[in-house]
Amino acid sequence: MAIIKLKKKAYEHNLKLIASKAGGFDKIICVFKDNAYGHGDKILVPIAKELGVNFVAFKNEKEAQNFKNLFDNILILSHIPNGDEKNDFIYALNSKEHLHRYKKGTKLHIAIDTGMHRNGISLDDMIFVFDEAKKRGLNILGIFTHFACSDEYDPSFFVQRENFRKAKDLAKKLSQNKLCFHSHNSSALFRCFKLDDDELCRVGIVQFGYCEFEKSLQKVLSLYANKLSQRILRKNEALGYGLSFVANDDISIATYDVGYADGLFRYDGKGVLALANKKPILGKMSMDSFSCEDMGDEICVFDDVSSWAKFFNTIEYEILVKLNSNIPRILE
Ligand SMILES: *Cc1c(COP(=O)(O)O)cnc(C)c1O
Known about the structure:
The protein has helices at 8-22, 33-37, 41-51, 61-65, 126-135, 156-174, 186-191, 306-311, 316-321, and strands at residues 3-6, 28-31, 55-58, 73-76, 90-93, 107-111, 139-144, 180-184, 199-203, 221-233, 238-239, 245-246, 251-256, 281-282, 290-293, 298-302, 329-331. The chain is elongated. An 8-stranded parallel barrel has the order 2-3-4-5-6-7-8-9. It is 25% helix and 23% strand. By secondary structure, it is α/β, with parallel strands linked by helices. It contains 9 helices and 17 strands. It binds pyridoxal-5'-phosphate. Residues 31, 33, 77, 146, 185-186, 202-206 line the site of pyridoxal-5'-phosphate. The site of pyridoxal-5'-phosphate (PLP) has 11 residues, from strand 9.
C-alpha cells in the first residue's frame, strides 16, 4: 500500500525557524489550504497548535470546519459570500463588489491589490470600502496583500511592499480598531531582512521544508510504495504501456503500487525520472503503479519533490498538492 510518512521533528524544526525569523509564534499565520499542501491537515494542524500557533488560514469553510475550535483566528482565503458567514471565521474580502453580500457583523480581512492584480481592492478604493463596511456593520479586523514575485529577484517585490505600507497608513486612519496586517508569504519572509513590527507573516510551503532562501529547512513529507510484483526482464524484452522500456541486459524488475491516480504526474518514459535512491523509473507510469529495478518490498518514491518539480517543469507546490488525500498518512 502506498503511504505518506510525515516527520514530526522536521515540521517542528521548520515552525521554530519560522517563529524565530518572524519574531514569535504569535507573528505567524500558518496557511493549511488544500490539505496542508497535500501533506495531511488532520495530522499537521494540531502540531502547529501545540507549538503555539494561534492563527491559521484555509481555502474555504469546508477545510476550516474541522479546526474551528482549535484556534482564535481562522482566515478563509477564497470564499464567495452568501450571507451565511460564520462567526468562527474571518473572511478575506477579495472584491469590493462582495461587500453588500455579507451580513452584519461578519469579520473581514481586506485583500489589497498592491500590484499583483489577481484579487483584492486597489488603494484608491480603500476609503469607499471602509466607509461602506461601516455603514453595513461589517467588522474589518485587518488588511493584507500578496506578492507576485517574492520568489524571484524582481523589483516589483519592493514596489508592492511600499504600496502595502501606504495602505497600512491609510487603514490606520480609516479604522478605529487596532488592525491586523500581513503580507509576507514563505519566500518573502525568508528573503526580507526583518518583518515590519506591525505585521504578521502568512506562510505555507516553508512549513513543509521548501524555500530556496533558507537552507536549513527540513522536508516533512516522503512517499512510499510497496511491491506488487516482480520478475526477470530478459535482454531485449520490453516493459509496460507502449513497451517503451527495453532491457539491454537481463534485469530484475519490480512493480510498485503508486501511480498517476494517486496524484503523481504521469511519467511518459522519456528522460530520467529518479526515485529517492536515484534509481530511475523504467517505462511509462501506469494509473496505479510504476516499475523499476527490484529494490525490496517497500521503496521511497521521494522524500524531496524538488527534482520531480524540475523534471516536470513545475514548482514543488504542484507536485505536493496533487497527492491524493486517500493515501494513508502516518506521523513518525
Ligand atoms: C497560498 C497563499 C499563501 C502562502 O504562500 P506560500 O508561498 O506557500 O508561503 C499566502 N497567502 C495567500 C493569499 C495564499 O493564497
